[in-house]
Write a structure and sequence with these properties.
Blueprint lengths: L8 E5 L5 E7 L2 H18 L3 H21 L3 E8 L2 E8 L7 H5 L13 H8 L2 E7 L4 E9 L2 H5 L4
Antiparallel strand pairs: 1-2, 2-3, 3-4, 4-6, 5-6
Length: 156
Amino acid sequence: MPFPFQKKVMVMTTDSTKPIQKITIQTEDDLYLAISAARHLMNRLDFNKVDQQKVIVSISELCRNILNYSEHGTFLAEVTGNKLRLTFEDRGPGIEDLDEILNGRKSPLSKGLGMGLAGVKRLMDYFQIETSREGGGTKVIVEKWNTCENRKRRND
């Protein structure tokens, strides 16, 4: 079944086992497109509901960071084997005090759900961040793995 919002979404496929969906994040509607794209891919991977919710919360946090701190950015969703890899990139001002934020100290400028980057790091199986304080932007890569243990909780 094709992704329903292909007008706003660039769907690229290197082969049938690795679908890739890329969305430009400029408005709140784009955040919802990103969630829908990821949900579509998670259904293909047979993710359980708990893990789907963790991914959705993470997408919301990271897309809101793009909307709050940059004019626009990109969201890229890829499937490789049993992994969903999400990449968020912007050209905003970068993140000051990254270590403090990753340790759970909320920025006074935060407008998100309150979990921020530290919450995303806890919810996802893999977390990587690159940021530049000189206006080079921020790139966050996260992954959620659909392991045998996760599939046992499918109906949670």
